[in-house]
Design brief:
Blueprint: H1 3-42, H2 47-58, H3 60-64, H4 68-94, H5 101-129, H6 135-160, H7 166-178, H8 203-208, H9 210-235, H10 241-257, H11 259-266, H12 271-292, H13 296-324, H14 327-358, H15 364-387
Helix pairs in contact: 1-5, 1-6, 1-7, 2-5, 4-5, 4-7, 4-14, 5-14, 6-7, 6-10, 6-11, 6-13, 9-10, 9-13, 9-14, 9-15, 10-13, 11-13, 12-13, 12-15, 14-15
């Protein structure tokens, strides 16, 4: 077997290992958020304390993510992923050991940190290994399996129940098993000796590709506003609890299913224009929601299409990130994108809640459409600037 064939086989094994580990990250996240909320509610904790417990897991993104480039430079992708999985498994098993909301605050922070470490390492790893001509399809498969894993997370609890150790042991066992392919994964060349910027060096990447990275702010706002308010919007428009919760389920189904076709499309059309087209489509769909919310048979297909549009936005921005940056730059660009996504995940629901408090929950889809419409001029202006300067080949949005 030639050296090129050996390298190709190792690359495929590494790609499969990274994608598989990321899917497990989705399972872990999909299980912990609803299960822990149910357990804390059963213990008699109020909504504020439950929200504080959830926030302790979310805030880890801002603390740990800026350290990711240095971790990857020091340890490489394989070891960083393995350390993240080991940390997540340990924290999952610590949760039922000390079932107290205050003890859970540091445990959930460390769980969130561990999950962020191995998910980020896997996503950068996949984008780095992906060939340019098939980057969209590769990212599409990655997104499909991660979203599918997230959707499968609650099924673990449905199977094991939410009492005792069972859901935590099942999730920890699955994560441990999914880490086994790392034994056969090869480290990308030169990953261990690349130089990465300082702790706040990520800020300059926003200046290098502003419209691309600001799109992650948009995604965070859209994703978490949907999670927080879509079901409530349905309840306040006459749907029962099951129908209202199904609105989010249908949207997430569209989000998951569309990853692979959107990835295929990203390999065949201008990726910048794909991002703008999907953002415009999402805005149009959200503007149509008030007209169909009275009937679930109309609302479900509309929200399924909204999920497809959001999937297209995510696929386009992640593919463009890998197209625009390489090596250590890619890791640092991921830090910037993660911080902006996290900022959007906080700002989006807070802004939507404030507007809804001053008006009514009827404004939720209009606010979501507004987020898209605010972003579009930024993307369109940047696209026009780039096309007027064809010599600027290094810059994508």
């Amino acid at each position: 077997m030639s050296g090129l064939q050996t390298t190709a086989i190792q690359s495929r094994r590494s790609l499969a290992a990274a994608i598989g580990c990321a899917a497990v990250a989705g399972v872990a996240s999909g299980m912990t958020w609803p299960v822990l909320a149910i357990i804390l509610d059963r213990q008699g904790n109020d909504g504020t304390l439950i929200a504080l417990s959830s926030a302790s897991q979310s805030v880890a993104v801002f603390v740990i993510l800026p350290l990711a480039p240095r971790m990857l430079a020091r340890w490489g992708f394989v070891r960083t992923t393995a350390v993240g999985i080991a940390g997540a498994v340990a924290m999952l098993l610590a949760l039922p050991l000390v079932p107290n909301i205050y003890a859970w605050l540091p445990i959930r922070f460390l769980l969130g940190a561990s999950t962020v470490v191995f998910y980020t390492a896997c996503e950068i790893w996949v984008n780095r290994l992906a060939a340019e001509e098939s980057r969209g399809r590769t990212i599409g498969i990655f997104g499909f399996l991660w979203s599918g894993g997230f959707a499968a997370g609650p099924l673990i609890a449905a199977w094991t129940g939410t009492e005792g150790w069972a859901p935590f042991i099942a999730t920890a066992a699955l994560m441990s098993a999914a880490a086994l392919p790392l034994l056969y994964a090869a480290e990308p060349p030169a990953a261990a000796d690349e130089v990465t910027p300082g702790f706040f060096g990520f800020a300059r990447y926003v200046g290098l590709a502003p419209a691309l990275l600001i799109a992650f702010l948009l995604l965070g706002a859209l994703d978490y506003t949907n999670d927080a308010f879509l079901a409530l919007y349905g309840l306040h428009h006459g749907l029962d609890q099951t129908q209202a919760l199904a609105l989010l389920t249908v949207l997430l189904a569209g989000y998951t299913i569309a990853h692979i076709p959107c990835g295929w499309l990203a390999d065949r059309v201008d990726r910048r224009r794909l991002l703008l087209a999907m953002t415009a489509l999402a805005a149009a769909i959200y503007l149509a929601v008030p007209a169909v919310i009275g009937s679930v048979w109309l609302a479900w297909p509309v929200l399924f299409l909204a999920g497809c549009a959001l999937s297209g936005i995510w696929t386009a921005v992640v593919v463009l990130l890998g197209q625009r940056f390489a090596g250590a730059e890619l890791a640092s660009a991921y830090v910037a994108s993660g911080i902006l996504y996290g900022s959007g995940s906080i700002a989006g629901p807070l802004l939507t809640g404030a507007i809804a408090d001053s008006t009514s929950l009827a404004v939720v889809p209009l606010v979501l459409a507004g987020f898209c419409l605010i972003y579009l001029p930024v993307g369109l202006l940047r696209d026009r600037m780039l096309r007027s300067d064809p010599n600027n080949s290094r810059c994508d949005l």
